C-alpha cells in the first residue's frame, strides 16, 4: 500500500519529468492508435473485396468474338441468352449463390422528364442481331429477384426513402426522387411503361405493362456520372415475360464455393448450352485497381507503426535512464531506510504504469478522432496513384481503369472505427512500453549503492 501511495504522490512531486514521460507515452499511443485503426480497417475492406472478387464469376458477352463473326458473315446472329439457360447454369453444384438481373430500355409517354425527349422512331441493329424499328429510349428498367441486392443499394449509393418498400410483387417498382418530384408520384401510384420495340422477334405486338410504385429512392452520383433519375427498379420476372419484352439484356453474377473451381464451373456452363460468344471470368481489373492499393495502404500503416514504436521505445529508454540518474539521491534514501531493491523497482514500474494508464485513455480518444481523416487522406492518395490521377471514369453500371472496364465501383470510403481488437492491441503495446520503461528504470536504480549515494549527495 505504501508503494502505491508513494508512487501516486511522486506523480505530483515531480510534474516536469512526469509530463515529459507522459508526452512521449501519449504521442506513441495516439500514433499507434491511428496506425492500427487504418491498418485494421484497410485489411477488413481488402478481405471483403478479395473474398467477393475471388469467388464472383461474371457472365458477359464476348463483344470481340461477336464483332469478328459479324464482320466475316453479316448474316451471323448472336446466340440468345435466356432465363432458362441462366437458371440451368445457376443450378451448378460449384455455386453457393447466383445474383441475376435483366435490363430493358423503355418508354413512358405519360411521364415528364428533366430533358426534352424525341418521340420519333429509329432503326437499330446490334452486332449479331436483325435490324429493328424502335422508339428512342426514355429510361431503363432494371429487374432483380431482390431489388435490395442491386449494386447501388448494396454499395450505399442509393437509399430507399422513408415510407416506401422494395418491390414485393412482380408489378411493383422503385422510381427515383427526381422522377417522382417531376410527376407528383408517391408510393401506391401507378405508371405505365412499354418496351422501345413495337413487336417481339416473332412479329407479335408487345403489351404495355402497368407498374405500381412501391417506393422512391435517392441516389448519389459520383464524379463524371449524370443524375438522370431515369433508372426504374422492378422485379426480374416481369422483364422476362415475353408479353412485354423483345429481349432484355441479362446479367448474371455467379458466386463459387471455392475460387479454384472456376475452370470446372466454366466447362460445366458451356456444356449446359452457354455459347462461346459469352465469357465467364473474375473481375481482375477491379482486383488490381481497388484491392492492391488498399493492401499497400495497410502496409504503409504497419511500417509507420513499427517506426513509431522503435523510435518511441528508444526515446523512452534514454529518458528513463536520465530520470533515474536525476532521482539517484531519492533512491539512496529509500534503500538506506531499509526498502528492498524489489520494492524500489516495483515503485518505479508502478509510476510508469500510472502515467501510461492516463495516457492510454487519452491516446485512444485522440487516435479515434484523427483516424478517420488520416484514413480518408491515405485512401484518396492510394486510389489516385493506382488510377493515375483523373483516369478513373465512372459511368452507368461500371468504371474504367486504365482503359479496361469493370462493373465494380472503386472503394471511396473505409470506416475507421475503433474496435475491440484495436483497443486490445493498444493495451498490449502500453503494457510492453510500461514494462520496458519500468525495467530500464529498475535496472539503472539497482546499480547504485545506497551509502555511496548518500555520501556523495549528488
Beta strand %: 15-25%
Distance between the termini: 29 Å
- How does the major sheet shape up? 6 strands, mixed, barrel
The radius of gyration is 33 Å
Strand order of the largest sheet: 2-5-10-7-9-8
Q: How many structurally independent domains?
A: 2
SS content category = alpha+beta
Mean pLDDT: 79
Point out poorly predicted stretches: 389-407
Shape: elongated
Number of strands: 15
Approximate helicity band: 40-55%
- List SSEs in N-to-C order: HHEHHEEEEHEEHEEEHEHEHHHEEEHH
Question: Total helix count?
Answer: 13
Transmembrane segments: 20-38, 299-324, 345-371, 426-448
Pfam families: FtsX
GO molecular function: transmembrane transporter activity
Keywords: Cell membrane, Membrane, Transmembrane, Transmembrane helix
Question: Could you list some keywords that capture this structure?
Answer:
458 residues, 3-stranded antiparallel beta sheet, transmembrane helix, 2 domains, alpha+beta, ABC3_permease_C, 15 strands, cell membrane
Outline the secondary-structure elements.
Elements: H1 2-13, H2 15-55, E1 56-61, H3 63-72, H4 83-90, E2 95-107, E3 121-124, E4 132-135, E5 139-144, H5 151-154, E6 158-160, E7 172-176, H6 177-183, E8 190-195, E9 209-219, E10 231-235, H7 236-239, E11 249-256, H8 262-271, E12 278-281, H9 284-326, H10 328-336, H11 341-386, E13 393-395, E14 398-401, E15 404-406, H12 420-446, H13 450-456
Parallel strand pairs: 5-10, 7-9
Antiparallel strand pairs: 1-11, 1-12, 2-5, 2-8, 2-11, 3-4, 6-9, 7-10, 8-9, 13-14, 14-15
Helix pairs in contact: 1-11, 2-9, 2-11, 2-12, 9-11, 9-12, 10-13, 11-12
